Amino acid sequence: MFGVVRPCKHVLCGSLFKDWMAHLCGLCLTLRAEHGQAARLVTNYDGLLVSVLVEAQAPDLSPRRKAGPCALRGMKTAEVVSARAQGAQLAAAASLLLAAGKTRDHVADGDGPYARRLVAAAAGRVADRWDAAGGRTGASVGFDPSALRDAVARQPVLETAPGLGLLELTEPTETAVAAVFAHTAVLAGQEDNAEALAEAGRFFGRLAHLIDAVEDVTDDAASGAYNPLLATGTAPAEARRHAEDALHGLKLALADVEMENPRLVRALLGREVRRSVDRVFAAYPSGPGQQPPYGPPGQYPHQGGHPPQQGGYGGGWIPPGGGGGGPNYGHRPPDRRPGWPIPCLTGTVVCITCGVFQPEWSDHHGQSCTDRCWCTRHCDGGCDGCDCCNCCECCGCDC
């Protein structure tokens, strides 16, 4: 999985952030308990969604325990999801299997340091260990690891096939995430939720693949590495449309899932996924006359990467200045933007205030409190008019 859901403390607020950290630390410690310290390297933000989904459907199946001090928590103790929880074990299995697949993909493509023979050989052995470990843990909770292995193996085959569309290239990711999401219903004893969760997983997998591609598109264009947006000639506006369709589908699918405690699921798979989409597409304005400059068809650099299948830079994927976006980038400035410490500090202030403070270059600067606040801006009408300015704890609602 990818880093789609990356909230900070003051975006989630209060108890929701505490619950999110319980699942994140629980996943990390489950990997350590089951497979040793090195396995903790595959801990990722999106993998913990599996644990969150199991707890949302059956809270009693995710017991908590007190974990000792950790450097990543400022040497503080914390209540975390126990390694005995099947949701945490499924999350660990999925993280290991997908990390193994992605490592093998880097080795096959010879990306960066993986182009060196010794590095590639060592990475390949690590990937084999992760794959075996993920298979064992998945089998222990009744999950068939072949669902993920087959999807991961199919991805490079599709990338070398000519003439495929963007959604055909995202299919393996969609299938893999759908299988994991659906199995959370089995673990929770809520089999009636499996179909809706599989549908939610497909849409989330599509979003994850798209967001990953958008984040990498500038670097991939410069280096010639494979990128589905460039390979299919997908313009930013079309990619954004696919993302918006997936967001809508994800919301409808989750509405059909019966959950005892849906607040964290709705926050992560609703508001936070929306923020991720807004963030990555902010560098690519879609209005008339706002499309960034790009090279004509046939000028896609492919020094070792896969050549484009449908021509060009993909209809305008190079943002002004080459990488990082213009002044309307939004709440989270690009990592490589010149003079990044000042924008980064501004983004921190925005985050701490739930978006109520907005810098001058933000599209929301000067708007009302409700329009500036993340919590109310992404409630989708489910807050009954409340706003973060006078009743926080994420609006005190389930949005």
From TrEMBL:
Compositional bias ranges of the Gly residues kind: 311-328
Chain positions covered by the region annotation Disordered: 283-332
Pfam families, A to Z: DUF5685
Compositionally biased region (Pro residues): 290-299
InterPro entries according to UniProt: DUF5685 (IPR043740)
Compositional bias per record (Low complexity), positions renumbered to this chain: 300-310
Chain segments annotated as transmembrane: none
UniProt name for this protein: Regulatory protein
Protein's organism: Actinomadura rubrisoli
